[in-house]
Design brief:
This protein has about 140 residues and is an alpha+beta fold. The chain has a single domain (about 1-130), classed as 60s Ribosomal Protein L30, Chain: A (2-Layer Sandwich), CATH 3.30.1330. The protein has helices at about 1-20, 60, 65-80, 100-120, and strands spanning about 25, 35, 90-95, 120-130. Helix 1 (about 1-20) runs parallel beside helix 4 and helix 3 runs parallel beside helix 4. The longest helix is centred in the first third of the chain and has 19 residues, at about 1-20. It starts with a helix and ends in a 10-residue tail after the last strand. It comes from Goodea atripinnis. InterPro entries: PurM-like_N, PurM-like_N_sf, PurM_cligase. This is PurM-like N-terminal domain-containing protein.
């Protein structure tokens, strides 16, 4: 069931994101990964730069979950830009203790919106409901 919910809540935001992204992006919903063909995107002899960040305790203090997704992408994009690189794609992973579909849709929608603003593709699209997590994301 989670896979079905995942595709439903991610479809509009992720499809919007995939429509504009650079040539070279090869991703589909539900694959939990994606391909990026650097040659098809016009890069010659590239060096890849990667960044990572997490929202951590901001989840407990935040009332607007869509902003968390945007903040997360922005921090990663800024780290990549600071290295003199171009952000090409963002690989997301969303895990929670009790899946609230509205909250997940808001966070992932924020991620997709920020990816669109940054001109990078959204790859991965992985949501996991982990009952063993201590932190519960609530409205």
């Amino acid at each position: 069931m989670l896979g079905s919910v995942q595709v439903v809540i991610l479809s509009p935001a992720a499809h919007r994101c995939l429509l504009f992204c650079l040539s070279g992006c090869k991703a589909d919903l539900g694959g939990f990964a994606g391909l990026f063909d650097l040659k098809a995107a016009g890069f010659v002899d590239p060096i890849l730069v990667s960044g990572t960040d997490g929202v951590g305790t901001k989840l407990k203090a935040c009332g607007q979950h869509g902003g968390l997704g945007q903040d997360l992408v922005a921090m990663c994009v800024n780290d990549v830009l600071a290295q003199g690189a171009e952000p090409l794609f963002f690989l997301d992973y969303f895990s929670c203790g009790n899946l609230n579909v509205e909250v997940a849709a808001s966070v992932v929608g924020g991620v997709a919106k920020a990816c669109e603003m940054a001109g990078c593709a959204l790859l991965g699209k992985n949501i996991q409901n982990r009952d063993d997590l201590d932190v519960t994301i609530s409205k």
